[in-house]
Amino acid sequence: MAAPAARGSTPYQRWARATLLARTPETGTARTLVLRAPGWPGHLPGQHIDIRLTAEDGYQAARSYSLAAPGRGEHLEVGVQPVDDGEVSPYLAEDLPVGADVEVRGPLGGWFVWRPERATAPLLLLAGGSGVVPLMAMLRGHRTSGARVPARLVYSVRDPAQLWYGSELAAFAPPVSVRLLHTRDAPPGDPRPPGRIASADLPDADGPFAPGVPDVFVCGPTGFVEYAADLLLLAGHPAERIRTERFG
Fold first, then answer.
1. Separation between Cα atoms, residue 186 and residue 199, nearest integer Å
2. Which terminus in the chain has less CB density within 10 A, N or C?
């Protein structure tokens, strides 16, 4: 996986063209977009890009989207969850024609990232809804890099229909584990009743990951992230090992 170039050293730190190659559904509304960005410098799991659209009258709107996979040449995968009355996300999710160009800028973000080549601590990931997108990049990076540190994803969704990457998550095997939490409607046979994430859903800092204290990444809506971060602190996870990213 290529490391991202230094800021200002490539045209992607400015706006440049990228072409939509494919759009695939993740849920009833969420989509993965695959873009080709010639000369892309590479990126790290957890980073994001800005995408800008320009209307015929010259009006422009730009939004940030998380990258769903580690860098692989010129191909970028981004996750898009349409926002009601949004200017950019509904168009990207449903209307942008395959083969059309958009403008992109990035990679962006240097703090909420996981570096497989430096991984010595276990990895604990907490996702709420579409917040799973950058964490999926970390799990995919874990797999492709051959990392052997344990990795656990705790993923909270409202109901099974809101699950991103369902088949791929089900296929992960040790040292990766995935736990799904449903807040409103659980599938038949789920031993956990629906409800928001709770202390019992999270490993203690000195629990199954011992003797290594995990690096923790939390991503999702603001309310989820703040509540989950408080639970992690109560479970004994050091604040300096918890990194958060909020949507909305």
1. 19
2. C
Helix (H) or strand (E) holding 157: strand 151-157
Q: Has residue 20 been placed in a domain? A: yes
Per residue in 156-181, pLDDT tens? 999 999 999 999 999 999 999 999 99
The amino acid at 85: D
CB 40 within 8 A of CB 22: no
CATH number, position 24: 2.40.30.10
Residue 102 structural domain: 11-108
End-to-end CA distance of the chain: 30
Per the structure, the count of domains in the chain is: 2
On the 0-12 / 13-18 / 19+ scale of CB atoms within 10 A, 99 is exposed
**3-state secondary structure labels for all residues of 74-93:** CEEEEEECCCCCCCCHHHHH
Model confidence over 185-221: pLDDT tens digits?
999 999 999 999 999 999 766 655 555 789 999 999 9
DSSP assignments along 165-211, one per residue = SHHHHHH--TTEEEEEEESS-PPTT-SSPS-S--GGGS--TTSTTTT
Strands (E), 15-144: 16-25, 31-36, 48-54, 60-66, 75-80, 101-108, 123-128
Burial track 199-234 (b if 16+ CB lie within 10 A, e otherwise): eebbbebeeebeeebbbbbbbbeeebbebbbebbee
| pLDDT at residue 1 tops 70 | no
| Both tokens assigned to 16 | 């440049």
